[in-house]
Amino acid sequence: MNLSRSGFLLSLLCLGPPALAAQVAEGNAAWREGRFHEARIAYEQALRDDSTSVRANYRLAVLASWDSRLDSALVLLHRARVTEPDEPDVRLAEAQFLSWRGSFKVALLKYDSLLVDHPDRHDAQLGRAQTLAWAGRLNQAEAAYARMIAADAADYEARAGQAQVSAWRGDLATASERYQAILSSDSGNVQALTGLAQLHHWQGKERLARTEIDRALAADSNNHEARQVRAAVRAGLRPQVEVTLGWSNDSDDNTIWWQTLGTSLSLAEGLRGFASAGAFEASDPARHGTRVSAEAGGAIARGKMEFTAALGLRGLSPSDSASRSVGSWRASASYRLAAATGIGLGYSHYPFDETALLIARHLDVDAVELNLESGLREGLDASLGAGSAWLSDANTRRFMVAAVTQRVTSRATVGVLGRLQGYDFKGAGYFSPDRFTTFEARAAYTQPLLPFEGRLSGGLGTQQVGKGASGQLEWHIEGKVSRRWATANEVSLSGGITNSAVSSTTGAFRYRTAAVTVRLGL
User: Fold this and answer.
1) Quick one: 65 exposed, middle or buried, by C-beta within 10 A (0-12, 13-18, 19+)?
2) What is the pLDDT of residue 260?
3) What is the DSSP secondary structure assignment for residue 470, as one 8-state letter?
4) Exposed/middle/buried for residue 498 (C-beta within 10 Å: 0-12, 13-18, 19+)
5) Per the omega criterion (within 30 degrees of 0), is the bond before 451 cis?
6) CA-CA distance, 194 to 212, in Å (whole number)?
7) d(Cα 505, Cα 509) in Å, to the nearest integer?
8) Which of 384, 372, 370 lies closest to 342, judged by CA?
9) HSE (CB half, 13 Å, CA atoms) of 459?
10) Interhelix angle for 190-202 vs 206-219, to 10°?
11) pLDDT computed for residue 117 by the predictor
C-alpha cells in the first residue's frame, strides 16, 4: 500500500493532545494548505521546544519519506512511539517505511503485531500483502490479496496488488489485463497507472510508460512507487554510459588488463541501441599482445519476442607475429513460452583472442547456443544450456550446462550446477580436453551496507579433466560491493578467485579476476 498525502492527512487528525503548541498548530495549518516546506520549519521548531511531540515527529517522518530519507523517517517514528507506543497510524508508517527500505522480515513482524490489535485495518492488510510480494513470497501475497478481493470485489488497491504479483511472476499479459480492468472502472487509479508504466518500462516502451506515470503523479505527486517508476522511466529514456577497468591472472602466468566504454539509449518504443569500445592487453612470460575493439548494435522487443544483433571490428597486435583486423558479429532471439518460461537461440562469430598466445594464433570461432529457463515453482528456477563452437583450426567444442536455483530468503539463494564439455582433439594454446565435467553446490547472499550493497557468492564441488582422469576438488568465490545513487548511477568493485579449470582459457587451476565499473545515466 502507498501512504499518500491525503491518507496521511486524514489519519493524523486523531494524533496529539487537543491543546497543541503554537508551532504545531502553525505546522498543521501549513500542512492542510499544502505548504509543506513551511510545515517542516514549524514542526522542527516544535521539536526544539518539545522533542516528544507525536504529531511533529510523525509528520516530519512523512516528509522525510517523501524525500526517500527512510532512515531519518524511522528515527522520527521511533521518537513518536516512545511517547505513544500503541498509536496505530505511527505503527503502520513504521512498518511501511521498513518495507520500503527492504527490511521485509522486520516490517512483516510490525504489520502482524498491528493486525493482531486492529484486524480490520485495510491499510495494514494491504501493506502486509505488498511486503510479502516485495520479499518474493508471491504465493502468500496472492492469497492475501485474494482474501481482500473476496471481501470486496471493488477493492481496487488489492486488485492492483494482485496484478503486480502477476507481473513479478513474469505473466505480463495477465498483469496488463488486470490493470486495464481497474482503469476501465477507475481511469485515474494511481496504482494501476503505475503498474502499467512499470510493465511498459520493462518492455522498453519508455514513452508510453512516461505518459502513464505522469498521469499517476498528477493524481498523487508523493506516491512512493510512482516516483520510483518515474525515475526508472527517465533513466530508460536517457543515454547510459558504462566504464570498466579489469584485471585477471592465472597460475600459467597469463595476465590481462582490459578497459571498456559502452553506451546505450532508447531509439523508439521497444528499440534500444548500444555501442562499445575497448582495449585489451595480454601478456605471458614469452610474449604480449593487444586488442582494440568496437561494436554497435540494437535490441528490439515485440510481444513475447526479443531480437538482438551487433557488428564489430577487432584489431589484434601480437608481439611475435603479424597484426590483423577481424570482423565480429552476433545475433540472438528469445521467446517467452509462458509466464516463467523462456527459450533463446544465439549465434556469434569472433576471433579467439583471450590470451597473448591466442592473439598470435589467428584463430576464429563460430558458435551456436540454445538456452531454456523456467520457474518451476515460487522461488525455484531451472536453466539448461547447450551449444557448439567451430574453431578455424578444425576443432569443435560442445557443451551442456544445467542449473537449479532456490531462493531461501529475499537475500539468499542456493543451488546446484552441472557442466559437460569436450573437444574433438587437443588444440594448441587453449584448454581443450576430450571431456571436462564439473558438478557443484552454489550459494549467494546479498546484504545492504547502507549506502552500499554487498554480494558474496561461491561454489564447491568436483571437476574431472579428461576421460578416465580422477576427480579433483573444485571451488570458486566472488564478491562485489556497489554504491548506487539516483536510479541509473552506480559504481562497483568486484573480484573473484577459482581453481576451476574451465575458468582459464589455458586450463590453469588458479584464476583470479578483479574489476571496477562505473555506470552513469546522462
Assistant:
1) buried
2) 97
3) P
4) buried
5) yes
6) 7
7) 11
8) 372
9) 20
10) 160
11) 92
pLDDT of the residue at 451:
81
Closest by CA to 329, choosing from 307, 344, 314, 339, is 314
**How many CA atoms does the CB half-sphere of 396 hold within 13 Å?**
5
pTM of this structure:
0.75
C-alpha neighbours within 13 Å on the C-beta side of residue 183 = 19
Residues facing residue 186 across a β-bridge: none
Element (H, E) at 473: strand 472-485
What is the mean pLDDT, run by run of 10 residues, along the chain of 522 residues? 42 43 76 80 81 82 80 85 86 88 88 92 92 88 93 91 88 89 90 91 86 90 84 86 96 94 90 95 95 97 91 96 95 88 96 95 96 87 96 97 91 95 94 95 89 93 92 95 87 96 86 96 82
Count the helix, strand and coil residues of the chain and give each as a percent rounded to the nearest 5: 35, 40, 25
Residue 319 is given by DSSP the state: S
Q: In b/e form, how buried is each residue of 168-188, taking b as 16+ CB within 10 angstroms?
A: ebbbbebbbebbeebbeebee
* C-alpha cell read off for 99: 518495507
Collect contacts of 108-112 with beta carbons under 8 A, ≥24 apart. Answer: 108/132, 108/135
C-alpha dist (Å) from residue 476 to 301, 381, 405, 437, 510: 35, 21, 17, 15, 10
C-alpha cell at 75: 528515527
| Biggest CA-to-CA distance, the chain | 89
165: which 3 cell numbers? 504479483
Bridge partners of 311, per DSSP, are 296, 329
List, in sequence order, the alpha helices (H) in 50-155: 54-66, 70-83, 88-101, 104-117, 122-134, 138-151
- Which residue has 502499467 as its cell numbers? 196
Determine the pLDDT at residue 171.
84
CA neighbours closer than 13 Å in the CB half-sphere of residue 289? 25
Report the alpha-carbon distance of residue 421 to residue 418 in Å, rounded.
Answer: 10
Residue of 280, 241, 284 whose CA lies nearest to 261: 241
The Cα 230–Cα 210 span in angstroms is 7
